[in-house]
Amino acid sequence: MRRSERRNNLQICPRRDSDTGGSDLWSSTLPLDHGGAPNTAKVTNMIEATDREIYFLKLKYSVIERIFLQQVVYPEIRELCINNGCELVVYDLQLGLRDEFCFGYILRSFSQKIMTQCSSPSRRAFFTLETRSLLLSPRYYLDELKEPANYVLKPVSANIEKYLNDSEEVYREGYRQWEKNMIHLQHVLLQRSPLEFQNNVCKSVIHESLERFIFSGVWPKEVTFWLRRKFSDRNEGTTNWSLNANFFDIAVDRIDDVAQSRLESLADRLSRQINPLQKLDVKVKWSGSGINPDEGHHADYLTEFCSRYQQMLLGRIEEEIQRKQEPDIRCNKSVSRGLTKTLYQEIQQQTLMCQNMAEHFYGKERILNSIETYIQTGHVDNLETAQGTIRPLVLHGVAGVGKSSVLAQIANQYCTLEGWTSAVAVVRFVGASTRCETLEQLLQSVREHLSVLVGLPVMSVYEADGLSLDALLGKVPPETPLIVFLDGLEQLLDDPPNVSWLPKELPSHIRMLISVRTDSTWMKAVQDRLSSSGFLIEVPPMTVDAVIDAINSRFSQKNLVVPTEIDTQLRGQLSISTPLHTVVLTILLLENGIALEKKVTFINMSTEKLINEALQFLEDSFSKMYIKKIALYLALSRYGLADAEILDVLSRDKDVMEGIVPYQKSLFRVVPCLLWLYMKEFLRPILLERTSHGLLIYKWKYAIVEDAVKARYQNLLSNCEKLLLSYYQGTLKCPLFSKKKPSIVESIKSTLDANMCHIRSQNMQYAQCFNGRKLDELPWLLYQRGELDELANYLLSMPWILAKLSTSGLMVVLREFDMCLSKLPGGQRRAGVLFVRDLLSRLAAICCEDPKQLPIQLHLRSKYGDIAVPDDLPMVRKFFDAYENDPSPLLMPSPQQTKMMGRVYRSLASLDESHVFGGFFNFRNELDHVISVSPDRGQIQVWNIRSNEAVRTLVGLQQPKDVKVCDTYKAVVLCSRELKVYDLDSGELVCSLKGVLNIRMPFFGVHDADHTIAMARNRMYVNMMSNVTGEMVTTFKVGEDRFMDSMLTSENGERCVCGDAVQKPFPLLVWDLHKRKLIYDLRIQGHEFLTKVSAISKDGHYVTCACKRHYVLRDEVIDKMLLYHRTLMFVLDILLVSSNDYYADEPVTKTFMELEDPDPTFIVVYDLQSGSLFKKWKGTYSPTGVAMSQDLVVTGHEDGTVCVWDLVSGSLKHQLIGHSRGPDFLRLSNNGKRCVSWDGTGRDNTIRLWDLEKGVCLGTFYSGCKISCCAISPDGSMVLVGLPGIEKLVTLLPPGESQPVREGSVFGDASRSGAVFDVSE
């Protein structure tokens, strides 16, 4: 078969005006999916592609109905998806195709391939015939690449040359001749072939799809819809059989009974399989002209059809959106343990890239052996270096030689090397993600990763004194081997190269592998830096045998074999090659081998020429303009394009549409999606797939391919850049409905007349999310087009910067500032851009941790602190004034503290941390005063929170850490390991309590004004001591060999609850302090209590605690089975003790209730009056903190949410969102109506004040420096904060509120106000 004939089999253009349907017999010789009197069965299927895209695959639909769905139903649903952070992609595989192409094997292949993406991996399916005959030979060619060889239908042009004529009249005559021949072929096959052949081979595309996906149960019912059109009032006696052939199966001049019988059987099976709620039957009156929207009854039919289908579809779409909006549990759990979401996504992207590159590894075993030797010994081969110095290993070679695949292969298998099985890998491929393009981005990403490994907060790398790469490597413990992979340094957008960060020496447990192109400036810089050639390995080109093995492997994956003639040519003509050359060569061989009549002419072409050959093949196969434009769009985009974006842009490209629509005048203007799907499959080995803001995007994987595309189509570069820029600017307008929505028929007619299609709206922010794709691509396109003033306007816009920081991160934003400054001429605009760029760098920690705080911080620092806005830069002043429009509430310092806050913001980098508050503590019946402790200074102070003055100061204490108020002015203070009672009014030591506490668990509480209870040093007893004499009063003994790990005491002193860390299952021990006895030993079989997350009500009636399942690991298999597959029933054991004993010698077990299907970590509440389990709350994320009032329980969780539970009903009242990490510090006001939350670990340095009744955030505070402690005032009106280096507490007020004024707010004896007492002993 000639090459031109094979290529013409791929030619595509939309149907002509007169085509309203068509038979599917040409791909299968039997039309079972499109017609039949009086009903017509059609199927639409929904499939899922990525975590933010919803795909629809539509097979064989009537053209008019499909156009109306594309124009009326899907645009509204797409807007719904976009506003909820998803994307809708409609794959109508036949809309817009040439008639004969609808029946070809390529459509059949892609129909099943696209459907298979959501089920299980499968080989590409083709239409085949396994018989030879003279009738078939003119219309089919033998494809010997298949194993076994198969017959494939030839294109129309192979037998009818008129079909290729530019004249529409000649073309249609050729098409009619071809159609007549194919109908004849169908009848011959049906009459002469056995029944078994008809049943197995003579099937339509949709019939095979139904068998393979629907009837087999591969696809669930909820993702399948059945739309059926029913004709009525059809007079068969006056039927236009030519027209009927577009809607029914016709045998000469009558309805085909055989086809109708098969159709009825198929419909019957389908009706039993499809959910009745997802089945749509619509009646339509038969017309001699087919479906005509101008006829009234047909307009009504189309209106009903679209409305009912949209209503049916919306419910399923909303469920899908809700599912996709569910939080990424794995991501949020990782974030709660120290990662940032940005770092988590970066690691995911790099892992995907590593796996992808490893697939292209061929041969090079010697290189692998040398690298493995380096990892195990620190040297290459047997090289002995001076003093055994270990240096980074450098892989170098020419472009496309396979350096990346070598590194990827090592990264995938290093853990099999002896001594490195537990090693940790930090892998970065330059350009693999949107956050790894410059050296600054690369190093920052690696430093973030290393900071997590060594136990430092990720945000610490953004601080002014953040650790360098060398310093972080030095902190990696020797017991944790580490390998750092850095690939493609020459691709970094930095000139000249800077390698001062590259370590000259490495610790013995650390290895570093980097790759760089031999002829790049980076290679020379690296060589000069390392000053050693012993750690350089050159990656050689592939050998001929390796190339042939790679080609054979690729063919076998496609279930194909390389013809003997081609294999001989390869071995005789092929010279040494590179992996990229091999990949492109394989692509061409797969598509052209049989068509080239066993003679391959491009074997020894250069890689650039091979790429051009592949592009030429696509141009010959499709519309040339289409191939040129799509190749350029992929090259010109910054990070790549998603499916929906590609179809949008192509459909609005006039040159593309005119090139593939030679006769179309009135049909819906949309590019056939099969064009892009085929090209994507054809070029998949050289396309880079990665995710961006939840969408799967595509871009050229190799820079050499991108350069070749730009060079080949240089004359179209400017137009493509302009169109792509207009797309993301939102100036490619699409018709939208006005408030008074026209009828469906009127709206579609107006759009058809305008030759327009619906495209994605390009708002910066949608209802539920930012438009991350616009935020990523628009600055790059403006930069490429040289529109620097407009780019500067975006960079000086606070809403734009906040959106960019929230979606892309600080490093990407700084990169865009640098791009703009590299070409922006001098003047006020340049000065403003430079000023804002430096400002964001200084506030890096805030920008990364909580960008929403940026306007607030700029306002505070410009008003009180270290930032002065230049008067000659009005655009910068406008940037700062964005705070005035910021709707987020801010906790503001009281008016008396503005000067003090100015000092904080002016001296953030040099604050003296020698004075740090250790905590704030409230009095029981005092609203205006609080207690603070300063362990380092040995100081306790009593503060008037209204005047912000210290009314009492006690100095000379030994490391005061904790305070429990026992009387109006008396308090028990934990000093080092001892308890002392002080009169805070008179500044006197009342007494020292007998004994010392456990240094790790110094737990104590107040029973009443005269007694304190404390856990003994050996953790086996609870002691009660007198606050008057300091002597021991009594002891509560838990039991032999039982050790407590926590202690809670109710505010009224009636109940004490301790956790036991020894007994299995871990119990909660409850004492009645008045009766001085153990009343409950609470356990849940197979579980353990996490007493670090626990609280007790003031009256001692309830205790709440986190609880998780306890696993006994026997072996790996049993552990996995228990963890993932078993649903167990647990029994709660309540241990009752004798009222005459202080501890239980022989406890009585009582089966109380069952806990069904427990989560690994959940919250339980016990009623301490009855000893029963009162409430159990299961959440998606483990709790990190808990607080309790008389009627509410407030819990913080790993994902940063704060949940408010009703203690009586057990319902979830509010789920409060705002923290980026799980808050472990929760404190309630005295009335329980307000709560302050904070992450004491420092991973989320924001403090938030919540209204628990309304479920709203009253205000947020971010200091810009480490917060030492915080609290809420007793009346809930203020938040109290301790900052390092600040000797006074900071009081913060919600917006719109002022300090309540109370008369007589005096602490104790007024004459002692401001007194300082030295209580040192």
From TrEMBL:
Q: Where is this region: Disordered?
A: 1-23
Which PROSITE patterns does this entry report, sorted A to Z? Answer: WD_REPEATS_2
Q: Which domain of life is it from?
A: Eukaryota
Key word Repeat present in the record? yes
Question: Which parts of the chain are WD repeats?
Answer: 1192-1215
- Keywords from the UniProt entry: Repeat, WD repeat
InterPro entries named among the record's database cross-references: NACHT-WD_repeat (IPR052752), NWD1/2-like_WH (IPR057588), P-loop_NTPase (IPR027417), Quinoprotein_ADH-like_sf (IPR011047), WD40/YVTN_repeat-like_dom_sf (IPR015943), WD40_rpt (IPR001680)
Residues covered by the NWD1/2-like winged helix-turn-helix domain: 604-715
Per UniProt, what is one Pfam family of this protein? WHD_NWD1
- Can you name this protein? NWD1/2-like winged helix-turn-helix domain-containing protein
Q: Which organism is it from?
A: Paralvinella palmiformis
